[in-house]
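Example 3.2
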Amino acid sequence: MKPLRFTSLGLALVALFATSTAFANSWYEIELIAFSRSADKSLKEQFDSPTAELNSANAIDLMRPLVQPAIADLIQAIPACAATPQQDTASAAPLSAAVQQQIQQLLSQHQHTMQPTTGAESLDVQLDSDAAAASLYQLNFQNCQMEQWDADGQLISRPLTAQELALQLPAPAQIPATFTGDGKESNQAYLVGPDGLQLKNLAYQLQRQAGKQLLLHTAWRQPLVSGRNSRSRWYAGSYQDNESTEAVQTVDLMQQVQQQLAAVQQGQSSLQVWYSPWQFDSLVQLRLGRFIQFDATFYLRQTDDATQPAQIAVKQSARLTLGQIHYLDHPRLGVIIQVKRFTPPATTGAATL
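Structure, written as tokens:
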């Protein structure tokens, strides 16, 4: 009986170790809402401005593939490209017109930039420069080749180059406040689908309140490893391109110089200004231990209060309780976050065995 007891105890210890390991590397669902507030002119507090770019090294960016997809990602989405010669590509699902338009527009812009319309001048049919640039490249969606008119007016086909595949679509002027993915399961972090948002009513109420602007409502699922930090980047709102950013910096810089001159006279720090191109930009860090430690840095661009920096920096830290809705408050920015356990369906059956 002693060997049997020893074996049973050993099995119990193995089960306990497996349970603790599963707990230390379990999956979580995080839902995040960020909104801005209108300026309170009676507020005397002076906010900090960003002094450096967000350190997003090694940070998860689940938004980038949807906001600025690389041409390589779009090419891989074409069913015929992934098909082997033995497969019937004719039966593959057709590529959406939106993706076709994105690829063609991107490559047309690239051709117009990289190669002036010298080839078009040698064509028998004379076209205006814009039309010629747009017609030089067209993607053959049947075999994933690039069809290009040569100097003799002949249509030749060639594979896409690595430089073309590395290109990204330009950033949109505005990111939708409600930002979700397709919700497909993955062994890495992924965005939930539209039906996965649990705080829709709360976001809707915020949208209807005067003086508040919903910036971002999103949710994602990811594994967290005990004792390790998980960093992710989230941004939203309007995008400030380089040209308009320089103009804004010039105006706001002059405003802040006046503020800083008075600060220097009082022995305070000198002026440091840095701008993120997004209206809302953030770096969120989660650490799994006895509780969920939440540390985040938020950058918010504002234009309705000339006495404050054009972009303000907000740092927040909190200990999160699983399942509870946490509200992080600031005079110009509000953040709502909820972290819950998530059991991937693929592991549900194994866990019940």
